[in-house]
Amino acid sequence: MAVPKILTRILKEPWEVDPELARLNLTRAKLLKVRTMALGAAADATGYHAANAAGTFSYHGGIYGLRDELVGEHWRQDRPNGIEAVRNDAKNVILSFVNVDLACNDMHNPVPRSKKGSGAEKVSQGKGLFDDLPAFAEAPTSPYAFYYLMVDEQGAVELSRPVVKYQTFSAFIDRIYLSSGDDFDGASRSFDEDETPMDFDPQVLRKAS
Fold first, then answer.
1. How far apart are CA 139 and CA 118, in angstroms?
2. With 70 as the cut, is the pLDDT of residue 179 above it?
3. Is 121:165 a contact under the CB 8 Å cutoff?
4. How far is it, in rounded angstroms, from Cα 136 to Cα 170?
5. Nearest to residue 65, comparing CAs of 73, 54, 57?
């Protein structure tokens, strides 16, 4: 039996974005603060750092920011399949951070600036083949919705629910635009390719007897 396809949902206007964020126990202000923390961390990279430092710093700043801003009443720290994240059990939502090439552009689906491992594919429930049209994805089967806060180097940011396949985002279920970047006036550094560690599956090692 064929798995049903669904049209990607794109939310852009405040009257549709803000209620959706509230439904997920999130606010635009907190998520934009995470964006600013991530890009601020990227700006700490200097010419003496490794070439991929800006993206790596941004990733770590973004994960820290998510946990610092959200962990509390509704959210707790989580690491499903080795993916650094936060989790809301009441809403069945898992949220992580990723640097992307371009966010909040209707003509372009965000592409992660580092390859996503099998851990991300499992968590996003990417099963089977997808329609070639980028505006469609298979209907989700997991009880948990896995979102990424996606940030590009210009400060554009969206909260989106992709499906991971072949180490990248193969399709999107939801895209929620938070900012085009015009509100971001901080310093940033251009990200190099493959700047963040690949997602991984954790290994369980037996203690030597």
1. 20
2. yes
3. yes
4. 10
5. 57
- Of 165, 153, 141, 148, residue with least CA distance to 189: 153
Q: What is the pLDDT of residues 182-208, one digit of tens each?
A: 998 866 666 664 555 555 444 444 455
Q: What's the order of all strands across the beta sheet hosting 93-99?
A: 9-11, 168-179, 157-165, 145-151, 93-99, 85-88, 76-78
Please tell me the distance from the alpha carbon of residue 106 to that of residue 199, in angstroms, as a whole number.
27
pTM over 0.90: no
Which token pair is 66?
């998510």
Tell me if residue 56 falls in helix, strand or coil: helix
Look at residues 154, 193, 152, 151 and name the one whose alpha carbon lies nearest to residue 51: 193
> What CA–CA distance (Å, rounded) separates 145 from 158?
16
Instruction: Give the separation between CA 10 and CA 32, rounded to whole angstroms.
Output: 18
Cα separation, 35 vs 137, in Å, equals: 27
> φ, ψ for residue 32 (rounded to 5)?
-65, -30
Q: Take residue 109 and report the two structure tokens written for it.
A: 């689906």
